[in-house]
Amino acid sequence: MKQVLEGSHAVSEAVRLARVQVISAYPITPQTHIVEAISAFCADGTMDARFLCVESEHSAMAAVIAAASTGVRAFTATSSHGLAYMHELLHWAAAARLPIVMAEVNRALGPGWNIWMDQTDSLSQRDTGWIQLYCEDGQDVLDTTLMAFRLAEAVHLPVMVVLDAFYLSHTFEPVDVPRQNQVDRFLPPLVPRISLDTAHPRVLNQMAPPGVYMEMRYNIQTAMAQVPRRLTQYQKEFRAIFDRPPGDAVEAVQCEDAEVVLVTSGTISSTCRQVISDLRSRGEKIGMLKIKMFRPFPIALVRRFLGAARKVAVVDRNFSFGASGVFAQELRAALCNLDGHPPVFGYIAGLGGRDVTPDTLVEIYRRTQDCPTPPEESIWIGLNQEVVQSWYN
Amino acid sequence: MKITPGAVVKGGTSLHYKTGDWRDQRPVIDQEACQKCGICRDVCPDDSIKVKDEQYEIDTDFCKGCGICAHECPAQAIKMVPEEK
Amino acid sequence: MKEIRIHGRGGQGSLVLAQFMAIAALEDGKYGQAFPFLGGGGERRGKPIVAFCRLSDHPIRVRSRITAPDYVIVQDATILREVDVEEGLKPDGRILINTDKDIRQLGLKTQNALTTSAEELARRILGRPIINTALLGTFAGFSRELSLEAVLKAVRSKFPGALGEKNARVVAASYEQFVKEVA
User: Fold this and answer.
1) Sheet holding A131-134: strands in order across?
2) pTM of the predicted model, to two decimals?
3) Residues of C in contact with A171 (CB under 8 A)
4) Does A245 touch chain B (CB under 8 A)?
5) Which of A141, A232, A246, B29 could form a disulfide with A10 if both were Cys (CB 3.0 to 4.6 A apart)?
6) To the nearest whole angstrom, how far is the Cα of B74 from the nearest Cα of chain A?
7) Residues A211 and A270 in one domain
8) Residue A240: pLDDT band with limits 50, 70, 90
9) What confidence tens digit (pLDDT) does each residue in A58-76 have?
């Protein structure tokens, strides 16, 4: 049934429908409404689950690692500094091969204090071994969360469902909430790979000397490499059960004849669809490649859709200091071994909750159109020079 | 707005931010009933009750109209009245 | 698509008002998108805040904040001292203000403004000066962007039981009061 839901609560509904058994979270800023609704579900009996309210995000991740080790479906949610605080245990969750799902609301890191949209928090966790899926709208948030449990439990890796602060987390819009029996068909009960059981004692997290450590890491990568195929398979099942397509790992919109392809993620993709329809109606040849799956990075799909493109403009709402936007880096790496690959323009826009409007995207399109090659590694859009200079004064 | 390295700025910025604008009701002190016990000043979360010439007065630049002073006054000498709209 | 900006103070329910509109749009078979904008330092009780709503016959793709609204709703006229509520208003855009004052005392640039004394109605029916449902009814009558039936359903779905019924009475009364005044 369609309901008007906040993006945060689209996550909560998916967690309820997924019959998650243990949820652990730190409830204070930068936490969002996600766990507030889930704790209410646990308190009023809507969910038959245990809610562990802990004293920090580091403990929240430790608790869901412990829960998942006993063989139950476990979930947590966080944002910005909370995610950064979890960092050590993110590596642990992935290498322990635990199918944990976490909703991560993209918020900027301080100082200065800023609670608004910025992807640098989740992208700084790119090497931890978590699958990362970025969401475009409220429906995508709910669908991606359901898909996350399916993927995590198939490949034994944790999944981060990433959503934009405010533009998704605090935005109310119509979301089709599926029925429990539909979700049960898509997401059968978890069959744990291991479960702590006193009748069959096990030792967890053994020492792994140089003779085996490298192979363990290779196997994580092998699991990562399975994700695109699994996703395609589950998308078919998803569509058959819920009668709507879940988000593709990568979606190409009018790329075939495009002079400039904008590469987007998160809600910028949503705004960009409007820009494409406006500009196309005036005969402008603009396309979009929306990247939903950032880990594993969809190298083959990127090569297929962008290998023959004329110009590529990556819109990064994040920045890796001393380098460039993170999506631009990854994209350049994916394309560099292809003969005759297109020039990749890297744009930085919308950091710390600055709006990325249709006009921002039109400006990026025009600037790319006007330059034969990128004038610099990163082009920062909409900088106020007066504020930049005030640093020195 | 200016930025500074590490977002470090000169102290006392809250003195320039007049939170009194947020108020939708204001405390009014009945000076005759006031016993000058000082409880209102101690409980005010915004340090908005000042003593001037032995009289307790509200600093309307910063009083947010929370009403704690009126609630705590043992002499019931403080009334909250609606702010003019 | 119609874009609405709501000015209020933290605690007055501006975002809930935007949310009612988005729910009502769904009831009317349309699309709605409601979202807040937290100013520097976040939302505090009493601090001027802004909420947004988009209403459209088609799915809404644009996700940036609203800078050129078709409608502005002001929950509390004291905000006019601190905020330029007319900023970016479309040339044919309209403003709805909750105040007891005469419109000429407010010093607005636009001629296209309507005042309503939502507080009096809210106090009478709810017993509390919570004005967002009164403004919702007036907005539905004033703008004709949402049907009365849809906004009543929205209020009842958000607040089930007695509270919802009371608020539905506020919506209906403010809607009828507007329609009567215009007629």
Assistant:
1) A50-53, A22-25, A74-79, A101-106, A159-164, A131-134, A293-295
2) 0.94
3) 33-35, 63
4) no
5) A141
6) 35
7) no
8) very high
9) 999 999 999 999 999 999 9
